[in-house]
Specification:
It holds the Pfam family GST_N. Belongs to the GST superfamily. This is Glutathione S-transferase family protein. It is a single chain. The longest helix is centred in the middle third of the chain and has 31 residues. By secondary structure, the protein is an alpha+beta fold. A hairpin with a 2-residue loop joins strand 3 and strand 4. It starts with a strand and ends with a helix. The chain has a four-stranded mixed sheet, with helices on one face. It has two domains: about 90 residues, 3-Layer(aba) Sandwich (Glutaredoxin); about 100 residues, Up-down Bundle (Glutathione S-transferase Yfyf (Class Pi), Chain A, domain 2).
């Protein structure tokens, strides 16, 4: 199994799942900052030119949320996905909530803060996206009160996806009104097999 990754990106989610599962894998670093995702040899694997990509034999899978779901289904003995129908539906609900309601405003903030050329950045869009993130984080803050995990009574892949996204939101200084989420994120990253947090991952590639 091969994981094409770049330390600070959403590949952290997939690395987290692999480490929790104890699965051996080959890490292949693809430097996003240096444009390596747009080289022909990588585009042949992932035509979207994005990270991460998982190669499992002759099976190639992209999109971090889809990859962690695949890994959880491949190794069901680790119980990273609920078997109960309603709990699985809840997991899907919060996974989709994370990648749509939380991740998308963070992407907009990033694009208009440092990804787009300066002349294309819209300060107003950063303000709007920040407000939207805070509104949706407040919904999750309420859901997580009294809970250790997103769904059920043990860790699932939804926790890996969410904890990474919250760390991203924390880097953008948008979680100051969400003490429950901050505490949850901290406890998730204290797990023995947790990956580096985003700040440490950025430092590891000289981008801090």
């Amino acid at each position: 199994m091969k994981l094409y990754e770049f330390a600070p990106t959403r590949s952290i989610r997939v690395r987290w799942a692999l480490q929790e599962l104890g699965v051996e894998f080959e890490s292949i670093s693809v430097n996003v900052a240096a444009g390596e995702t747009h080289r022909p040899e990588y585009l042949a694997i992932n035509p979207a030119g994005k990270i991460p990509t998982l190669v499992d034999g002759d099976f190639v899978l992209t999109e971090s949320a889809a990859i962690v779901m695949y890994l959880a289904e491949k190794y069901p003995q680790h119980r990273l996905l609920p078997t109960d129908l309603k709990q699985r539906a809840e997991l899907n609900r919060w996974m989709l909530f994370t990648v749509t309601e939380l991740e998308q405003p963070l992407w907009r903030i990033a694009r208009h803060s440092f990804i787009y050329p300066e002349e294309q950045r819209l300060a107003g869009d950063v303000e709007i996206a920040s407000r939207e993130f805070r509104q949706m984080a407040a919904v999750l803050e309420q859901h997580m009160r009294g809970r250790e995990f997103v769904v059920g009574d043990h860790v699932t892949v939804a926790d890996f996806v969410l904890a990474y996204t919250l760390d991203w939101g924390n880097e953008a200084q948008l979680l100051d009104e969400c003490p429950t989420l901050l505490s949850y994120m901290k406890s998730m990253y204290e797990r023995p097999r947790a990956p580096m947090r985003i700040a440490a991952a950025l430092a590891s590639v000289g981008m801090a």
